[in-house]
């Protein structure tokens, strides 16, 4: 289904691309990569995670492992 991809690209464009002017294609590629890998995938709140970040979910998971051990 394209709905997920369309939603992602809309977010990418509105949060990052439209607010920046890139000097060249390489600068744009680097900025987009950093946005996806550093911000979107790790620190951005995700509705599917009950508006928590993937990092928060990971910390919670490992804390629960320590408690169970």
From TrEMBL:
The coiled-coil segments of this chain are none
Question: In this record, what's one Pfam family?
Answer: rve_2
Q: Name one GO molecular function term.
A: nucleic acid binding
Q: Which InterPro entries match?
A: Integrase_cat-core, RNaseH-like_sf, RNaseH_sf, Transposase_IS3/IS150/IS904
Q: Which residues form the Integrase catalytic domain?
A: 6-56
Q: Which GO annotations describe the biological process of this protein? A: DNA integration
**PANTHER family linked:** TRANSPOSASE INSF FOR INSERTION SEQUENCE IS3B-RELATED (PTHR46889), TRANSPOSASE INSO FOR INSERTION SEQUENCE ELEMENT IS911B-RELATED (PTHR46889:SF4)
UniProt name for this protein:
Mobile element protein
According to its UniProt entry, this protein's organism is hydrothermal vent metagenome
Recite the lineage of the species: unclassified sequences, metagenomes, ecological metagenomes
């Amino acid at each position: 289904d394209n709905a997920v991809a369309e939603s992602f690209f809309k977010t990418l464009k509105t949060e990052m691309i439209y607010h920046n002017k890139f000097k060249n294609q390489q600068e744009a590629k680097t900025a987009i990569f950093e946005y996806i890998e550093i911000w979107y995938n790790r620190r951005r709140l995700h509705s599917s995670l009950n508006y928590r970040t993937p990092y928060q979910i990971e910390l919670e998971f490992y804390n629960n492992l320590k408690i169970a051990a």
